[in-house]
Amino acid sequence: MYNLQDLLKRYMNDMPENNDQTKNSNINSDIKKAQRLLNFFNNSEQLTTNDTQEQHKTKKTKNNILDLNIDLLLGGTKVKERKQILERLKLGVTNIIIGTHSLFQSSLEYNNLGLVIIDEQHRFGVAQRSDLLALAKESMKNNPSNCNILEEDNSDKTEEICNTPHTLYMTATPIPRTLTMTLYGDLDVSTIKTKPANRLPIKTRVCFDSQREQIYDFVKRELNKGRQVYIVYPLVEKSEKMELKSAVEHYEIIANEVFPEYKCGLIHGQLSFIEKENVMQQFKNNEYQILVATTVVEVGIDVPNATIMLVEDAERFGLAQLHQLRGRVGRDDKQSYCLLVTKDDFKFKFSRNTKNIEDEKINSVIRLKAMEETNDGFVLAETDIKLRGPGDLLGTKQSGLPNFKYIDLVNDVDIIKIAAEITKQIIDEDTFLEQEKNAILKQNCNKYSDNSQNFINIA
User: For the segment 221-230, what is each residue's pLDDT rounded down to a tens digit?
Assistant: First the structure.
């Protein structure tokens, strides 16, 4: 479980939380210290979709045991309401602000923003996360008492440390760059391993186009039990450039030919916010038994009665997307299933040894095999880093190969761990590398820092 005491430490604390799908993030905290922290600081929670925001706003309002002032800032917030929210933020009246990309616009003026929680962290770019943290740092500059939150800790801290917001990154599948930082960088990890009571592991199977009749028969059996189903497609509409299935085209087929006896809904990113809200509410109320969708349902959707996630052209999706989609089912005590449908061309590749093969089609097979073998987001993230590379720790690339001459961040784990221990010893002894024996080391560190945009502290 995640302990709020970690956030009350006086040094900078970046911590990604591996919030695996269908698991509760129960916060174990001391209410008095939480009250003091939230009264002292403003708190920003950055979410990815309007649907997710509305869910969090509702839950936080229902569980507002500390009587906090909570605001919700969306891209579509009306001008008058937005102006009022910005004024409350500036004056420090708002204790918690919930929103998406609207929260890191330069026009926002926070008042001592000391805690930033970024949910679904993998959906935001490094520069975007950096912008929000920069706004937070700027808002903390005029509050010298930031270093005196806890009476029992009176040690001296530099201005940089005191004016750095506590940061919690939440994700079910850490992006390669973040996972690399947890392994080799100064980034703490809190993993939620327990599931809510009576939850069953989701059964995942890779299926092929030639098995479509059996797939639909299985789906129909679940529908006959009163369950609901997601069917996800990679495209909104048919494309002449890509031979991929689309949601709009196949909605008609699903609704009129395959499952005419059941009510079918359609949702995708080109619908307006109100249209999407209406469709999702109807699906949640079981007015639709089948929801044909794109990856717009990847986050922020909670329909406990849905037990099948059927993903078409599954080889086109990344591991993080597939794991997020799978997390839309298995949200109560019913057995749930994730069916990953791919082309028959991939069938023979599943019997081959796929290790150390870089062909993109083989990589797709590796991803699908990994989904079948585990429900663990961290295991999937480790597979992802091997396939896509660890990214650039100093820059904004969240995957790909870094510009190291000799070291391999994926395969040289033992050497890097030794190097990390030695580095810690050097920093403990000479924090700013001012001793003569560390002059060359400082010179090289400065060279790396000068050639980058200095995103080393952004997970």
Answer: 999 999 999 9
Strand partners, 205: 339
pLDDT tens digits, 35-83? 444 444 555 655 555 555 555 454 455 555 567 888 988 877 889 999 9
Query: Using an 8 Å Cβ cutoff, are 117 and 44 in contact?
Result: yes
Q: What pLDDT is attached to residue 248? A: 93
Burial class (CB in 10 A: 0-12, 13-18, 19+), 256: exposed
- CA-CA distance, 32 to 38, in Å (whole number)? 10
Distance between CA 381 and CA 106 in Å, rounded? 32
Tens of pLDDT, residues 255-279:
999 999 999 999 998 998 889 989 9
User: What is residue 3's predicted lDDT score, i.e. its pLDDT?
Assistant: 43
Tell me the C-alpha distance between 315 and 332, whole Å.
Answer: 28
| Phi, then psi, of 299 in degrees rounded to 5 | -135, 160
pLDDT reading at 154 higher than 50: no
Residue 452: C-alpha distances to residues 52, 125, 402, 447 (Å): 34, 16, 12, 9
| Mean pLDDT (the chain, rounded) | 77
For residue 349, pLDDT over 80 is answered with no
Long-range contact pairs involving 413-417 (C-beta distance under 8 Å, separation at least 24): 413/183, 416/183, 416/184, 417/184
Show the tokens assigned to 58: 């509702």
CA-closest candidate to residue 184, choices 331, 429, 385, 432: 385
CATH architecture of 2-191: 3-Layer(aba) Sandwich (3.40)
Token duo for residue 287: 């007015």
Domain(s) labelled CATH 3.40.50.300 in the chain stretch across: 2-191, 203-374
Q: How far apart are CA 306 and CA 200, in angstroms?
A: 14
Is the pLDDT confidence value at 2 over 50? Answer: no
- Token pair of 116, please? 């930033």
Residue 397: φ, ψ to 5°: -70, 120
Report the chain's C-alpha Rg in angstroms: 24
Site of tokens 């993998």: 122
Task: Give me 180's structure tokens.
Answer: 């690399």
Neighbours of 198 (CB within 10 A): 8
Number of Cβ atoms within 10 Å of the Cβ of 92: 16
Judge: domain 203-374, CATH 3.40.50.300: yes
Asked if 188 contacts 195 with a C-beta cutoff of 8 angstroms, the reply is no
- Residue 371: what are its φ and ψ, rounded to 5°? -65, -40
What's the CA gap between 166 and 15, in Å, rounded?
9
pLDDT at 157: 46
> To the nearest 10°, the Cα dihedral for 161, 165, 169, 175?
-60
